[in-house]
Design goal:
The complex is a heterodimer of chains A (about 325) and B (about 500). Chain A has about 325 residues and is mainly α. Chain A has 14 helices and no strands. In chain B, a hairpin with a 2-residue loop joins strand 1 and strand 2. In chain B, helix 4 crosses helix 5 and helix 8 packs across helix 18. The longest helix of chain B is centred in the N-terminal third of the chain and has 19 residues. The C terminus of chain B is likely disordered. Classes of the chains: A mainly alpha (about 325), B alpha/beta (about 500).
Chain lengths: ~325, ~500
């Protein structure tokens, strides 16, 4: 029971608590991440070296930040899904890097522009879903197309612009006690998002809307406003993830973050958030992002061809879903 | 005349839903060439009994004989093979398919999996022609969604007729029809009967039963209490059979509330509501009686702004625009909805969140919630309502029906409502929890709230209400006050027998 682990005042025996903990998808996902690192370390010496782990976490942070928004959208229920996060991240990265173009002074304006445009994309998604009653899958799939087109319009087919040095330093440097600043940013975002979910009216209403639209409506919850906000947040966090990626690659390219859409959904699912909405949290998604990154990197280290990597990732996802499904029945 | 062996014989039919016994040894015997009515007050099990025969409800125990042969009816398909067809008020049509496709649905003519449109048309035509006087302008190719509700109901009946059933169950199948449409259906029903079929007829309109039925089986609390010829029976006798010799229910209320008028409704129209007027005082518990499905739930939803309606509503003299549940809640209206699982609770969420969701704004500071304050608010309700829980963090779906319902009460009590709307609040709740919920309701009223309660159990209305408004087909047509509220009077009023009905209509003329 992910969402309650924080607030509950458990009065159960240690044995029961341990068992309950093991059934928690977040704990399970974390164990898988650790297991993957250990297996990697055994198969390829150096895989589990601290430097390598920091590197993997750095790469995981982009996916992790994008997965914040995806988590919120999936929690909002009503078959909530955002297929446009990848291209929105790309567009955000392009807008930001063109604006800053290698200058620290323009870093903040660049980020704000990217966030502003992303918020509009999310608003369009949300309004289409709430007012026009377009299914989220279809609405965000359409938006994927629209934003891809926008990327071409903005760039004229050639991506230019460079990341500000400060951004590069944030992602690639190791300024904070030997770890990259972006990991600190990610950690702070994770704490803030978790607080937002658990300790704000918006969070409570999001969970309510996700578990039952009808019951939420009949409890006086502003269902439409909550759902629209979820999609706006999704696009905004996608843009932030995209900007972090530019810091890593330093140069922007036309399909920078496009491939992160499906992994962001996978991270949410691995993290134990119910696909039907209303149950879950961000911590699981963050660990899910780490699991996926470590898995990819392990399979790459083992020289597995790309097609095989994709197959393995797919199988892992299906296997985890099957396990979670069983547990839910056991817990019910 | 020789005694024919009965076409249908059901006996010892038992069915439980959780803790609720819907049928406890009900029986039914009906012959071919007979229209047989099923009568009983709300919750007596008449619909369940019909559904057992139609294969859509699996009984816990039953002996079913058709033509003297014992049979098992495990599914609607099995029922269809035995020549049983059923029509309910709930439609089973597919809106996007044409009239003709809907008529042959489930028995599409064709060969090797390919449909024969011509054959379908050939079969559908006579049924459509027979229904034509009631249907009016309807084309076989027209999608069903374009038809009026009454026309759709007739197509549903046509679908059953197409199967040329030996046994036809009509369960409130005439509820959405006009008088002249009903006449056509009756005509067809009599033709079927004369051709040797057996028709089982469930209706809330007593005059339809006396008009159409040859015999009737009367149910009470899931048991068959009588089977009788309909001709010559007095309405009062039917009521007496339906209600039985009830001991007086202990009525739980004090003096007639004399507070100011809190809730005033005039000419409320929309959906199933056809013009509802009512006034209720502060501290008063007003029941909505009548047979189920006469607009009681719709009235409560409309008052809560959950369905669109037009009409004047005022609280404490101030006009209220019922735009949404959110605005209704902001005006101090609360609704305990009829379906606890899908409308009342957020099943996977913790008990605490289920309790606090309606009143977040009162405790939040700039949108931020304090964990301690939220927990304290939830805990106060758990204690005040004696809700039996494990931990506040457990999902609300882990609670029993009665305790889950107390959570729904609790979340509204935290908003300190002035008008409390209750839609069948003790459905699926055990006896002990029921009594506690009655106490909560009374306490609410004593604290000055106006309570409007709909119940599927007449006994419940007798127990808790100061006044009962009996609804019939979307309007209030009788009013019972104080000691007038008895189960017998409620059933009479629901079936529009006797003086209950005249009282209100007289009052309306005077007004």
């Amino acid at each position: 029971m992910t969402p309650t682990a924080l607030d509950g005042a458990p009065q159960r025996t240690t044995g029961q608590r341990a068992l309950r903990l093991l059934r928690d998808p977040v704990v399970l996902a974390a164990l898988i991440a650790i297991l993957l690192v250990v297996v990697g370390g055994v198969l390829k010496p150096g895989f589990a070296a601290p430097d390598q782990i920091v590197n993997m976490l750095r790469v995981a942070s982009f996916l992790g930040i994008i997965a914040i928004g995806q988590t919120i959208v999936v929690l909002s229920g009503g078959e909530g899904i955002d297929l446009s996060v990848g291209v929105t991240a790309t567009l955000g990265a392009i807008l930001a890097s063109r604006t800053m173009n290698g200058s620290d002074a323009l870093l903040v304006p660049g980020v704000l522009l990217a966030i502003g445009v992303a918020a509009l994309i999310g608003l369009a998604n949300g309004l289409g879903i709430v007012l026009l009653r377009i299914p989220p899958f279809v609405m965000t799939l359409g938006m994927l197309g629209v934003v891809s087109g926008l990327v071409l319009v903005v760039t004229g087919g050639v991506a230019d612009g460079r990341a500000a040095p400060a951004l590069v330093q944030l992602v690639n440097g190791r300024d904070v006690l030997g770890i990259p600043g972006i990991l600190l940013v990610w950690a702070v975002l994770a704490v803030l998002v978790t607080l937002m979910l658990r300790r704000t009216s918006f969070g409570a209403q999001l969970y309510a809307v996700g578990s039952s639209r009808e019951a939420a409506r009949l409890s006086g919850v502003p269902v439409g406003r909550t759902v629209v906000s979820a999609y706006v947040l999704s696009s905004v966090f996608a843009a932030l993830g995209g900007i972090a990626m530019v810091g890593y690659s330093q140069q922007v390219f036309l399909s920078l973050a496009d491939d992160l859409t499906l992994p962001s959904i996978a991270a949410v699912i691995i993290g134990g958030t119910l696909v039907s909405g209303g149950v879950g949290g961000y911590l699981g998604s963050a660990i899910g992002a780490i699991v996926l990154t470590v898995l990819t990197s392990l399979l790459t280290t083992l020289n597995m061809p790309e097609w095989a990597r994709i197959v393995v990732q797919g199988v892992v996802l299906i296997a985890l879903l099957a396990v979670y499904g069983r547990q839910r029945r056991l817990r019910a | 005349m020789t005694e024919t062996s009965p076409l249908v014989r059901l006996s010892g039919v038992r069915k439980r839903y959780g803790g609720v016994r819907a049928l406890q040894g009900a029986s039914l015997t009906a012959a071919s060439g007979e229209v047989h009515g099923l009568l009983g007050p709300n919750g007596s099990g008449k619909s369940t009994l019909g559904k057992v025969l139609a294969g859509s409800v699996r009984p816990d125990a039953a002996t079913i004989e058709i033509d003297g042969e014992p049979v098992r009816i495990g599914s609607p398909r099995a029922a269809a093979r035995l020549g049983i067809a059923a029509v309910y008020q709930q439609l089973s049509l597919i809106p996007d398919l044409s009239v003709e496709d809907n008529l042959v649905l489930g028995q599409e003519p064709g060969r090797a999996g390919f449909l024969s449109r011509r054959e379908a048309r050939r079969r559908a035509r006579p049924v459509l022609e027979r229904l034509a006087p009631a249907l009016g302008e309807v084309h076989a190719e027209q999608p069903v969604r374009e038809l009026a509700p009454g026309q759709q109901q007739l197509i549903e009946i046509g679908k059953a007729l197409l199967r040329q059933p030996r046994i036809l169950l009509l369960d409130e199948a005439t509820a959405s029809l006009h008088r002249d449409q009903v006449a056509v259906v009756f005509e067809i029903t009599r033709e079927l009967r004369d051709a040797g079929a057996c028709i089982l007829f469930v209706s809330h309109r007593l005059d339809e039963i006396t008009d159409l039925c040859d015999r009737a089986t009367i149910l009470r609390s899931g048991e068959t209490v009588a089977a009788t010829a309909v001709a010559g029976i007095e309405p009062d006798e039917i009521v007496r059979l339906m209600v039985g010799d009830v001991q007086a229910v202990e009525r739980d209320h004090g003096a007639r509330p004399t507070g100011p008028v809190r809730l005033a409704v005039r000419g409320l129209v929309g959906g199933a509501l056809r013009g509802v007027d009512l006034e209720a005082r502060a501290g008063e518990i007003v029941g909505l009686g009548g047979l189920q499905g006469q607009g009681q739930s719709e009235l409560l939803l409309a008052l809560f702004g959950a369905t669109s309606s037009t009409g004047e509503v005022a609280i404490d003299g101030d006009p209220v625009r019922l735009a949404s549940p959110r605005s209704a809640a902001a005006r101090g209206i609360a609704l305990v909805p009829g379906d606890r699982g899908s409308q009342g609770t957020l099943p996977p969420r913790p008990i605490q969140e289920n309790l606090t969701i309606t009143s977040l704004r009162a405790r939040s500071r700039a949108g931020l919630l304090s964990g301690a304050r939220e927990r304290a608010a939830a805990q106060s309700m758990v204690e005040a309502l004696a809700i039996k829980i494990g931990e506040l963090g457990d999902p609300v779906s882990s609670l029993s029906g009665g305790n889950a319902q107390k959570v729904v009460f609790g979340k509204w009590l935290l908003t300190e409502p002035v008008v409390v709307l209750l839609d069948d609040p003790t459905k699926g709740v055990d006896v002990g929890a029921k009594a506690e919920i009655y106490r909560i309701i009374r306490r609410l009223a004593d604290a000055g709230a106006t309570v409007i309660i709909n119940s599927s159990e007449d006994r419940e209305l007798v127990t808790v209400c100061d006044r009962v408004l009996v609804m019939f087909e979307g309007a209030i047509h009788a009013e019972l006050v104080g000691d007038e509220i008895t189960e017998e009077r409620l059933v009479q009023a629901a079936l529009r027998i006797g003086e209950g009905a005249q009282r209100r209509s007289g009052a309306e003329e005077a007004a």
